[in-house]
Amino acid sequence: MGGVGKTTLVKEVGKKVKKDKLFDEVAIAVVSQAPDLIKIQDEIADALGLEFHEEKEIGRAGRLRERLKTEKRVLVILDDVWERLDLGAIGIPHGVDHRGCKILLTTRREHTCNVMGSQATKILLNILNEQESWALFRSNAGATVDSPAVNVVATEIAKKCGGLPLALVAVGRALSDKDIDGWQEAAKQLKECKPMNIQDVDADFFSCLKLSFDYLQGEEIKSIFLLCCLFPEDRNIELEYLTRLAMGQGLLEDVETVEEGRRRVRTLIKGLKASCLLMDGDKSKGSLKMHDLVRVFAISITSTEKYAFMVKAGVGLKNWPKKGTFEHYALISLMANNISSLPVGLECPKLHTLLLGGNRGLKIFPDAFFVGMKTLKVLDLTAISKKLYRYSLHITPLPASLQLLTDLRMLHLHHRKLGDISILGKLKKLEILSFFASHISELPKEMGELKNLKLLDLTYCRSLKKIPPNLISGLSALEELYMRGSFQQWDVGGTTIERSSASLSELNSLLNLTTLHVEIINAKCIPNSFLFPNQLRFQIYIGSKLSFATFTRKLKYDYPTSKALELKGIDSPIPIGVKMLFERTEDLSLISLLEGSRNILPNLGSRGFNGLTSLSVRNCVEFECIIDTTQGVHPVAFPNIETIHLTHLCGMKVLSSGTLPMGSFRKLRVLTVEQCGGLSTLFPADLLQLLQNLEIVQITCCQEMQDVFQIEGILVGEEHVLPLSSLRELKLDTLPQLEHLWKGFGAHLSLHNLEVIEIERCNRLRNLFQPSIAQSLFKLEYLKIVDCMELQQIIAEDGLEQEVSNVEDKKSLNLPKLKVLEVEDCKKLKSLFSVSSAQSFLQLKQLKVSGSNELKAIISCECGEISAAVDKFVLPQLSNLELKALPVLESFCKGNFPFEWPSLEEDQSLSLFRN
């Protein structure tokens, strides 16, 4: 039944099988009662990183099918299936078409399992039994339920939840801070609440939800909860859109700015999630979802006289609903239907919100449509568009009656091809105006009359060519301005009288501006001084227009939460106005800089870039290093930077040149390096000594790299933290000259937090670890080595006598957390591990070895290694063993040492080892 936890369970399954690498890819799509194949295809494709160029379902299905077939092992999860689903029409290969594609679905109806395929394995998910129910209820209600006074009534309430996790959690959390009077009052409400008769739902379920709703503190949080039912079933709800609805309706008390409203809504959403009335969305941190049963409950609340909502979103309507009268409605949501025409003469004197977004074919708005809706505060007329660059030839004229909506606070006109929009200047109370991805050629001077406008969104309005001078500076209340992928005809300079177009200098007049998102092709348009307040969040793109491919991918809100600056393709000295932004920037991207850009410090600035937390440098051919301190004394460099990405820097020889002050790079956690052919050593000892928080290192296609970490000469003492002690993930790919991962003696090196190692196509590498380093790999879970032609050993034995004094010490080379070990095409590999090491593999679940021409035994057993007290060798968790293309393999364990693997799945190819 609904609410028993099907969706939660399969999401956890998806996370676990991906983490344990049982599947290469996992894709989840929500089906719902009215399946939308386009939406299902999009959700699966999004998980696979696939972009569709086709618009029709059949073409997209073919593209999706071919993409899924490229994966050896892929799990597709279809959630909330109600009827037989044509997998072929979606593009999901099944049966003999692709045996590596496994399908997991959830449904409330056993019949659906039967009609989906004879090979289906059915797993019935029952409600929780009494003991399980009480344990879940108690964990959410708290220890107060153990007191004698509360326990009896709490037990009664828990039983009323009917074994449904959703109800148990919601009610438990609602009552967690109540005294005995509160508990008794709750029990009384549950008894008296009239249950709703809904198919597939326990009769008491809505009583439990009603109790949880009633216990929400304040009208604001209840109003935000009810707004979430306005969207179609199973829809991801963008927090940004929810904020705009709440601001437009005036639901948030004592909130003056849009950002304050955003924070308030985030706080309220957090409370609703804690009450189990909302859950996280599937696509981004800024989205959320409402369980379909909770949505049905919320709609039942809003349909009462107190709220007077009409909610028919995403139900396939082709015409305006047939009702005798609309006079009592305060809110109407008809979004995501197929309505193509609107009635005339509607009388809606109480209507404050009308949501018509996403109706296919709705292109004509009768001139008199809004005459009877003069109290509207929120209006959404968004068109549906799968491709941002496609517009219908039909221009949507704004109806004349729109100017009568003098109380309108929020207006969305997304994906529309609009003509004359000058009547918008009549909407003097307008605070939020969005033309996201619409076709408009100019902003009329009348828009300068919108003195209360706080947010103007012109994102992806690619056809916008004209903005009159002083229009932007005249929007004195403007707090947030979004113009990514939009207007580019900024005036380069001159006085106000001389200018024929808007100038970036007008932004200095917006004293309330807190958010700016803008794209500037011509860097010369930038004034020498941006007088922005310190609290301004920005994303500023300078030097190159948004590419067509990137433009077509961007179908969602993209609002700055930090201070980001991107410079791309600038072939002249960087303007002073841009350099002044560097010290305010938190996220800096440098792409294809052409003239004189040899480094960042001191070439681009000399103050250390103290605010920078993220740096990306790509395709800068003259780049030699990040920092050059050889020409003088420099301040602490990049003290707060956390991530660095370096790509296609063919001239880079070192990360830093000269001596770095202490404190530089002290917070660096992630470093990725790709296609930097001049680098021979990534981390010399003096630089490595500074990187006390490094967690992730990824290096790809660096043709001259000979060693990664130089550990000779590292200082050790009370004042020095062991380098690499925070390292969690190391991935190396296509480093043909690499000879050493760790160059030098590693007695003072600790890798006790390293969890993942992937080494691929490093053909000169002969081993991975010295024994002294391997001794610290306590947390290593995943080890993959592929196509390393010269690799002979994983743990080096050369010089072993110098590092390990006796056999007993050698046994300490253990990997107690190792779960996955894969070795492929390492032709000269002679052994994997010795018995003394392999005896620690208590967690090993997957072992794959292939393409090793000299490997005679998987586990080597040298003389003297076996204790007389040990009579067998056991891999207790091993469930998957694959041995392929090992022409000289003689045994699993050299020396005829007995072994067991009790968890191994049956496979005929393993009979040799069992015998």
TrEMBL record:
<dbReference type="InterPro" id="IPR057135">
    <property type="entry name" value="At4g27190-like_LRR"/>
</dbReference>
<comment type="similarity">
    <text>Belongs to the disease resistance NB-LRR family.</text>
</comment>
<dbReference type="InterPro" id="IPR027417">
    <property type="entry name" value="P-loop_NTPase"/>
</dbReference>
<feature type="domain" description="Disease resistance protein At4g27190-like leucine-rich repeats">
    <location>
        <begin position="645"/>
        <end position="788"/>
    </location>
</feature>
<dbReference type="GO" id="GO:0098542">
    <property type="term" value="P:defense response to other organism"/>
</dbReference>
<dbReference type="InterPro" id="IPR002182">
    <property type="entry name" value="NB-ARC"/>
</dbReference>
<dbReference type="Pfam" id="PF23247">
    <property type="entry name" value="LRR_RPS2"/>
</dbReference>
<keyword id="KW-0547">Nucleotide-binding</keyword>
<feature type="domain" description="Disease resistance protein At4g27190-like leucine-rich repeats">
    <location>
        <begin position="809"/>
        <end position="894"/>
    </location>
</feature>
<dbReference type="InterPro" id="IPR050905">
    <property type="entry name" value="Plant_NBS-LRR"/>
</dbReference>
<dbReference type="InterPro" id="IPR032675">
    <property type="entry name" value="LRR_dom_sf"/>
</dbReference>
<dbReference type="Pfam" id="PF00931">
    <property type="entry name" value="NB-ARC"/>
</dbReference>
<protein>
    <submittedName>
        <fullName>Uncharacterized protein</fullName>
    </submittedName>
</protein>
<keyword id="KW-0677">Repeat</keyword>
<keyword id="KW-0067">ATP-binding</keyword>
<keyword id="KW-0433">Leucine-rich repeat</keyword>
<dbReference type="InterPro" id="IPR036388">
    <property type="entry name" value="WH-like_DNA-bd_sf"/>
</dbReference>
<dbReference type="GO" id="GO:0043531">
    <property type="term" value="F:ADP binding"/>
</dbReference>
<dbReference type="GO" id="GO:0005524">
    <property type="term" value="F:ATP binding"/>
</dbReference>
<dbReference type="InterPro" id="IPR042197">
    <property type="entry name" value="Apaf_helical"/>
</dbReference>
<feature type="domain" description="NB-ARC">
    <location>
        <begin position="1"/>
        <end position="142"/>
    </location>
</feature>
<keyword id="KW-0611">Plant defense</keyword>
